[in-house]
TrEMBL record:
The keyword Metal-binding applies. Residues 52-134 form the Cytochrome c domain. Pfam families: Cytochrome_CBB3. This is Cytochrome c-553. Belongs to the cytochrome c family. PetJ subfamily. It comes from Chlorella vulgaris (Green alga). The keyword DNA repair does not apply. Its main location: plastid. One of its GO terms (biological process) is photosynthesis. It is found in: Plastid, Chloroplast thylakoid lumen.
Amino acid sequence: MAALTICSAAAGKAQAVRSSAQKPKAVAALPRLATAVGAAAVLLTSTPAFAGDLTLGQQVFDNNCAACHMGGQNSVQPEKTLQKAALEQYLEGGFSVASIITQVENGKGAMPAWSGRLDSDEIESVAEYVFKQAEGNLW
């Protein structure tokens, strides 16, 4: 009976030592891996920062911009068209939706600022529309 008590006590001590031992590295890394996979899934399935509505963008363009920029042209300063090459050359910040948004919001030269006339959805949408038209050589 004494031997059984000693063995039980030793086994309990061994169990306590085993449970306090560190987890294998692969098991310890699982929570971080799950977080990274979850973040990647959000990034891959979320909408881009500038997810303008192209239909709304075309409507805004037709109703507000086409007077000077019909067909991607510029009736005030003919060299500053909405063609990709001209936007790359003249648009402050380079050819990007963010740069087009800045231009639409603040205006520049003969172009008026539209931030007080259009809401942010309209501005983002028209900027996305102009970018897609220029990028795809669709003017």
